[in-house]
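Forwarding these from the shared drive since the link keeps breaking.
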Amino acid sequence: MLAPLTRHRLGVLAPLALLHTLVSSVLFLLGVDALLWIAVVGLFLVPVAMGLWLFSDRRTLSRLLLSLWGPAGEVMVFIALALVSQLLGGGIPQWVFVAVAAGPLVVLLVGGLLQLRGAERTTRIVALALWLIVIVGSAGAVPLADWLTALVGIDPLAGIVVLQAPALALGTWLGLTLAARLPEPDSLRESSDAEVQA
């Protein structure tokens, strides 16, 4: 059972993870070298930062290790998407694109809102404001991808990067959610108790 503070933070992290992957995907899609590096580094560092905030009540080593579950979940989803696209080859049906974009978005929305039960009013307002931003951004993902494709002159299939943002965000969020369910190791708990007694 997760502590209420952890649950409420996970509720805020759901839209935040999606916002982060949408921004990173757009930066990646633009193809400018500086923006590309920012996007790639951000895809790793931002989930770690989210984890550090989520696990702020844990010991330093445990906090750092658990924070790595965010980018690990993102990488796992990215590998899964790459494998699926390889299996399907060039003829990817339209419903696959819709499922990749809409399915994770729905799971994140429902899962994130469920974590906010009993949260303070301010926390709920922040989470709902973030959700409003990312839903508008997600709804504009397809036309944005088309516009950027025409503007930058890249392969139309590169627009799929933006559509993958919800799936990557879900990977980050699920990774951190699973990590939050891990108990503090006994050795760390004992050393923490010893410091308190000292």
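-- next protein --
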Amino acid sequence: MPFHVDPVHEIARGGDPKKHILYHYALTGIWFALFVAGYLYELFVHSAEAGRMICIPGPWVENLREQAIADVRSSGHGDKDLFLSHGDVLLAWWAKTSTTA
């Protein structure tokens, strides 16, 4: 399919954006301008803090991993070789945290 063809175009035709569930959260007008100004302020004034990483303690991640392995084994699916990386555990934790927010 060529890049200039949009397969969703016909479905979305006539759709009203105001009916969207998250429409009232859209930044428009003065609120968008204030957001841009605040972003630029943070970018230039506090640029050193912008690149920081989130540090999560290793023992806590290992505890989450062990709990997940125990849950899988208790459900009856743990008879085969079970591999669960720290990245899997962190992704599951992050997804759960962000979807509940």
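The chain has a mean pLDDT of 84. The helical segments are 9-12, 30-45, 47-50, 58-74, 86-100.

- D.
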